[in-house]
Amino acid sequence: MADRADGFVGVFDSGVGGISVLRSLVAELPHEDFRFFGDSAHAPYGEKSEDRVFELASGIAERFLDEGAKAIVIACNTATSVAAAELRAAHPDVPIVGIEPAVKPAALAFPHGRVIVMATEVTLRLEKYHELAEHWGGTCEVVAAPCPGLAARIERGGLDEPDLTEMIRDLVGEWAGRADAVVLGCTHYPFVRRQIAAVLGEGVRFFDGGEGTARRLASRLDETGLLAARERPGRVELASSLNTPDELALYQHFYELPL
Fold this sequence. Notes:
The structure is a single chain. The strands form 2 sheets. Strands 4-3-1-2-9 form a 5-stranded parallel sheet, with helices on both faces. Strands 6-5-7-8 form a 4-stranded parallel sheet. Strand 7, helix 10 (193-200) and strand 8 form a beta-alpha-beta unit. It is α/β, with parallel strands linked by helices and 259 residues long. The protein has helices spanning 2-5, 19-28, 50-66, 77-90, 103-109, 121-125, 127-136, 150-155, 162-172, 193-200, 210-223, 245-256; strands spanning 9-13, 34-38, 71-74, 96-97, 114-119, 141-146, 181-184, 205-207, 236-240. Helix 9 (162-172) packs across helix 10 (193-200). The chain is globular. Helices cover 46% and strands 15% of the residues. It has 12 helices and 9 strands.
């Protein structure tokens, strides 16, 4: 078990968005080695069929395991909903941690308020989201806000360009001044929290699943005896299915970008 504990944690998403989760993982577990893979060649997953998302997600997970990953983090809400259960069943001895829209903490913080859930269309169609919304939306108003194209736009960078703010305004501007909380139900969206606040109002509170995912990974590694015992800081490697210098520089930019 000690040798296995020295292994790395594989983290993947459809693109740069999962880097927001990776940053939470590194903050929670600074001595672990992480390898992040963004499937930018096929981004965004949230606009693909469930079968295609499963095919892509399971392929990445299997490659990580072939390379010796001790654990897997699915840093994508859509891929978690589609693939996590089957991957856990196929690999019961491997901690496989996913992410889900942070509806619970938002509803608990605003039990009588309005909670806007920004997410991809696929995530909002899946049973997992509807279970969350029904269970935690008993007293608060949970509003689904599909955001087609937003993840793909974030993938391109240029987050301060006017067209991005205009896109956000078109998607959720109707809730300006009328929302208490926003659930960022796609891992890309934390990178445009400031732009969303500019549209909805500075008083809105944001919730995303990154920190909860990090705590869950720490717990699972501890339970299975897989926490790294090393003293040195962990290593972080970034890779993309668009393996170009420009794309890798963009990944590094997102890893260092203030949130």
